[in-house]
Amino acid sequence: MIRLLVFLILAAIILALTYFRFKQFPLLKRMIISGGGLAAAAVALLMQGTYAWYIVALALVGMSFLAAFAFAKIITKERQEKLRIVEERREQKLQQTLKKSAALEKAPEIETDEKPMSFGMQSIDAEREEITRG
């Protein structure tokens, strides 16, 4: 009975710490990590009095694997969602560039007969004299 009481006290402390201390991680990930650890500890606590130590250790490992599997599934879903968003953005960007290129092709070209003025320094021919003031 005392073990169960100590377990409940530790569980409350761990859940409070994971909720308030690790704000940079999403709530679901925090609760899966802390809940998986608490579930493994609870199973081990309940099995400790009736089963051998190696079966309890095996249950701990099994519950830890179960929590890790749930965590991996969530990460996989997040990655797929990010990839879907990236693909949608890529498609939108492609559609925008196609619309812009189609609009540029439809615009009539302006023909000019004038020679374009060049800006900047121009080279001086060797035969031509420089005009200097003075």
UniProtKB/TrEMBL annotation:
Residues 102-116, 125-134 have a biased composition (Basic and acidic residues). The keyword Transmembrane applies. The chain crosses the membrane at residues 6-22, 53-75. Keywords: Membrane, Transmembrane, Transmembrane helix. Residues 97-134 are annotated as: Disordered. The keyword Transmembrane applies. This is Uncharacterized protein. It comes from Planococcus donghaensis MPA1U2. The lineage of its organism: Bacteria, Bacillati, Bacillota, Bacilli, Bacillales.
